[in-house]
Every structure is written in structure tokens, then in C-alpha cells.
Amino acid sequence: MDRKEDEAKTVTTSLPRHFGRNALSNYAGVGVSLILALGLTPIMVRGLGPEGYGVWGLATSAIQYFGLLQLGFGGAVVRYVAAEHERRDTRRLRSVVATAAFSLMVPAAFLLLISPGLAFLFPRIFDIPDSLVVPAMVVVVLMTIDLACSLPSDTFGTTLIGLQRYDLLNLTVAGTSLAQAVAWIVVIALGGGLIPLGVCLLGFSLIGQFSRYLLARRILGANVLKRRYFDRKLVWPLLSMSGWLAVHEVAATVIGQIDGSVVGIIAGVPQAAVYIVGLKLANLTSSLTSAVQAIFYPEASRLAAAGDHEGLRRTVFTGTRMSMAVAVPISVMLAVLAKPALDAWVGPGYSSAAVVVVYLSGGVVVTSMVGTIVAVLNGMGNVKLPAIFAVVEAGLNLPLSIALGLTIGFQGVALATLIAAFIVIFGLTLPYCCRVAQISMMDLISVVARAHLPPAIAAGCVGLLLVHGGVSGLLQVAAAGAAMLVTYATVLFVTGLSSAERSFVFDRVLPGRAN
Length: 515
Hints:
The protein is an all-alpha fold and 515 residues long. Helix content is 85%, strand content 0%. It contains 18 helices and no strands. α2 runs parallel beside α9, α12 (309-345) runs antiparallel to α13 (354-380) and α16 packs antiparallel against α17. The longest helix has 46 residues, at 19-64.
């Protein structure tokens, strides 16, 4: 086997098992979610009005914080399920799932008990208009019940992830999301408000959770919600890992979700609605990037259980390259087309969120440098220091968001996210992760920059020329975005792939091509 064939083989062998199936299903799921988000947002904005939509967005953001009561069990379940599945220990695998589900019923009960208090405090914290106080309180209760039910039942979704059955997970999520979206559109068309929207949210969410339970039960070959599968000896091993994962999740929540609340407190509900719209558009990049990164988590657990250290190292390098190949072009496209995209999507009243999209998209590019590496380390059980670094980033992000928000407005909150991410990731997280993965940080940065800087510049120039020439309406924005992505992919093919990788791509596209 010559060098080029060996390099091309390395590309395929460093990918996780069932990577193609899982990646396609993840992107299908993300695609459905994005289409629904892009389509539903203008409908809900116009149907509820700025204040009503602001209440809905703030309630969603506020209640999501209590998802931290999952205590990191989701990530721990993924690791242990993947490892026990690799070892073929079915009995222990079932015990892991049952122990996690029963343990999470405790915080779920606590959340149900405090739901009336949360509903009472919500309109007072965010200064909700009098006409929306009662609907806001009811929505908070409904969302709290939904979250309380999801805490233990999400164990079955993470079980599917640990078994690398993303296809089944995405099927249930996409199906319930579509049904929920149809119900919301009907509610808005009939003149309904916040309360019926909340009822639909709860009802379809419960259906989705039950469907994942049935799938996990079928694969595991037993109803794990029986007392005999609960194992007290597994509680501490799960908690010892999940505790640090919970710390990481708290930090990630502060970094990624608290901004809307900060804007709501500093600038008011209408400005929070503008910010949340910009945040939704910027989240396009993180959603598409996470769809790839997530696949490497259970794969790292499997490789660690098998003792394949060289496979872990290759997985880190391959996963990072793939993450950046997704994050950079989407971020460049959003940054350049932010204003015309917002104008075409929800109207000119929200175009001031364009700067938010630019800053947050830049932040996603920065975090994508470490997304796969952190996922691999977590899959190996190395969770402590990545969690501490995330806490440092959150500790820097929050005061910066408040300071810059008060100084330059809600755009400053997004700028704070970018600044904090850049400082911590390049100063702490990336050096540590590269050292553990036995990869040179400078080599990794050099490879990424050499591959992605030329196509980013080329795609950015194409986009700026198109915007300067006039881009308006969804079709023109989509066409401009497609032109930028094609430009990016063409240049990346030349600058970002080795000759062996280019030959590998040609052989896949043109299998009859002469060698």
C-alpha cells in the first residue's frame, strides 16, 4: 500500500462507527429543527407581537436553566452505556439506565413542587405587562411540568446516543417537533395566545419522551423501569462523573443562554425579543457543528473501553478538522448576510440584531476549535479540567455581558461572549486538551488556518460583493448564501485537503475513474 492509499485509509478508519448514518440523521434532525425555527419565528413574532414573543422567549430561556437539575447524568449515561455495550455487559447496561432514571426522579419532584413559586416570581423579575401576567404565569407552569417530566425520561434519549442510534433519536425528535409546529400554527391562525401554545408544547413533548422510552426498552430487551434494575453501587460512579459534567453544563448555560435574560433585565422585553431573534440565527452554526461533534462522544467512550489510544488521538484530529469545516463557512455566511437575512426573515425592525449574529458566529468558530476534543475527553472520563475552564469562561462572560450591555447596548452582550470565549479557549482549554490528546496546539492551529483562511476570505469577498449589489428577500439571501458556500467548498478542496484526500474524494464521486 503506497503513502496516498495509507493516508486515505486513515481518513476512513479514524471516523466513528456508523458515522455516515449518524451524521445524516443528525443533519436531518437539525434541518427539520432549523426549518421549523426559521418558519415559526416570524409567525409567532407577528401572531404574539413583540411583547408576547418576548414573554415566550424569556420563559423558555428562564425555565431551561432548571434543566441543570439533570445534574450531568445525561453525559454520564452516554459514556457508561457506550462502554458497557462495547463490553457486551447487558445486565450492567440496563442497571446504568435504570439507576440514572430513578435517581433523576428526585430533582423532577423538586421542580414540580417549586413550579408555583417560579410562576409567581417570573412576571415580577422581568416586569411583564399587566395584560400578559396571567398567561405568562400559566406558561411558566406548563414549561416547568414539561421539564420535570423530561429530567428522568431523557435518560432514554441519552441511552440511544450511547448505543449510537442517533437515527432513532432524531426520528422521534423530528416527528414530535413537526406535529408541535403544526399545532402552533393552527393556534396562531385561530387567534390563540401564550396558554394554548404552552399546552401544545407540553402535550407533544410528553409524546416524544414516551416514544424514546419505548425504543430504548425494545433495544435493551427489558423494561428497565423496574426496581430490580436499580443498583445503588452505580449511583456514586455516575455522580462522580456527572457532577463535573453538571458544572460544565451550568457554565455552558451561563455562556449560551443567559444573555437573553441579561438583555431583558438591562434593556427590557422588546430589546430581549430582538436579541433572541439574532441569537436564533447565530445558533444555526452551533447546531450544525454540534451535529458532527456529538458523534465523537460515544465513540470516544467505546475506544477508551477497548483501550485504543491511537484511535482516540486520530479521532481528535479528524473530528476537529470536520468541525471547523462546518463552523467556519456557515459563520462567514451568516456574518456577511446577517442584515439582509434578518430583514427578509422577520422584518426590518429586527435588523439591529445583525451585529449580535456577527459576534456570536465568531464565538462559535472559536469554540469549535475545542468542541470535538472536549467531547472526546469527556467520553474518556476526563471531565474535571474542561469543566473548570468552562466555569472560568462563564465567570468572565457574565460580568463582561453586564458591563458591555450597560455601556453599548444589547450588542455588547454578544461581544462579551466572543471576548470571553477567545481568551479562555486559546489561553486555557485548547493548550490543555492538545497536551492530553498528544497533539501540538500550534500544528493544529496551523493546519486549520492554512485550510480555512483562504476559503473564508474568498467566500467573504463573494458575499460582500453580492450584498453591495443588493440582496433582498429570502430567495436572494438563500442564493447568495449558496454562492458563498460553493466558493468556500471549492477553495477548501484545494487548500484544505491533502492530495491523498482529494484522490479519495474523486474515487468516491467517480468510482470508475482511472488511477
